[in-house]
Amino acid sequence: MTPVALPVLILAAGASSRMGGRDKLMEEVDGVPLLRDRIEAALATGQPVLVTLPPREAAPARWDLIDALPIAAVEVPDADQGMARSLAAGITALPEGAMAVMVVLADMPDVTTDDMRRVLAEFDGDMILRGATADGKLGHPVVFPARDFAALRSLEGDEGARTLIEDNQDRIRPISLPYAHARTDLDTPEDWKNWRAGQPS
């Protein structure tokens, strides 16, 4: 059973540095910006949603997009120092009493609400849950129990939680998701072109 205090943390503070001047999170998916699509998918789980963002002046369109949405925006002043700072800021902002956190990357359009619910439903208070592809490759989303919050708050660099995960291999439980949902991320214009070409018309 999915616990009530299990917020979803969407990491959306990256700079889209490989997009040739475009903001990948403002690219459209089903007629809406990717960031809004990801937030709506997370909200549909029924869990609280937090979204990390760079300073408003660095990404005003992202801030304008989330202003009217029922989420907690977390500004990351040092977002340019890597994903770890975004993750640490999000963990620090979690509501009191959170039993765990589901980390979702904002540039992964194929992760559905059902995928998130499937991973959340396996929460047991101890294991680190990782979405996995149909053929077993580990990816996202990732659920970290509260016992890992202190370590997540102290992360540095652009490796995200990789070191924490590598140091806790005995606590990793893969949760199979359809196709390549758990690993499809869109970082470049070519990624977007290829992904759109594969979508049903």
TrEMBL record:
<dbReference type="InterPro" id="IPR029044">
    <property type="entry name" value="Nucleotide-diphossugar_trans"/>
</dbReference>
<protein>
    <submittedName>
        <fullName>NTP transferase domain-containing protein</fullName>
    </submittedName>
</protein>
<keyword id="KW-0808">Transferase</keyword>
<feature type="domain" description="MobA-like NTP transferase">
    <location>
        <begin position="8"/>
        <end position="168"/>
    </location>
</feature>
<dbReference type="Pfam" id="PF12804">
    <property type="entry name" value="NTP_transf_3"/>
</dbReference>
<keyword id="KW-0460">Magnesium</keyword>
<dbReference type="GO" id="GO:0016779">
    <property type="term" value="F:nucleotidyltransferase activity"/>
</dbReference>
<dbReference type="InterPro" id="IPR025877">
    <property type="entry name" value="MobA-like_NTP_Trfase"/>
</dbReference>
